[in-house]
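Table 4 source record.
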Amino acid sequence: MDVLYLLIPLSVLLVLGIIAVFAWALFQGQFDDLEGEGVRILQQDDAGLDGHQVRKGDLDQESRV
């Protein structure tokens, strides 16, 4: 029974923390354009490559040389 005096406040703090993280994500715009991100993944975009990434076609040509 004594353990409930510890677990109940901890669970309330956990719920408040989860609500705070959700509110932060909501106000930072994490959920503004959910469909746009799904479409962006499916589109072909070569401009997003950085210096360490290569296109699949470039990798095939390097292995043939």
